[in-house]
Amino acid sequence: MGKRDKKPEASAPAAPFHNPFAALNLKREELPSGPAPAPVKAEAPKGPARAVVRMERKGRGGKEVTVVEQLGLPAAELEKWLKALKGGLGCGGTVEEDTLVLQGDQRERLPTLLEARGVRRVTVG
């Protein structure tokens, strides 16, 4: 007889079935009786009252850029907004004085992102 043909020994009893979840039955009493409380809804993000979005080509070597003006945010906050908008639009951009400059013509896609960030009125020019 070869290795494959070996028969199990009849003298060794079969091991009992091991249930890895058996210990969880003991923890059942510690669980809360009712459903979990509903999570508190976060308020809509508060943003600037308005923003003006326009496309510009002059003085930029013929390249189209989208300019976001009149946000009225401090410089540090403008950097955060720029990073979020660049990620949402998949484009490059920079902060020039108190305006955001995004590469390409983003006038159609930008208002929805601004409203999601809390801008109450977006004017596209």
UniProtKB/TrEMBL annotation:
Give the top-rank taxon of the lineage listed in the UniProt record for this protein: Bacteria
Pfam families xrefs? SUI1
Report keywords, A-Z. Initiation factor, Protein biosynthesis, Translation regulation
Spell out the InterPro entries in the cross-references. SUI1 (IPR001950), SUI1_arc_bac (IPR005872), SUI1_dom_sf (IPR036877)
What ranges does the record give for the region Disordered, renumbered to this chain?
A: 1-50
Domain SUI1 intervals: 52-118
Question: In which residue ranges is the amino acid composition biased (Low complexity)?
Answer: 10-23, 39-49
Q: Which GO terms describe its molecular function?
A: translation initiation factor activity
- The identity of this protein, by name, is Translation initiation factor
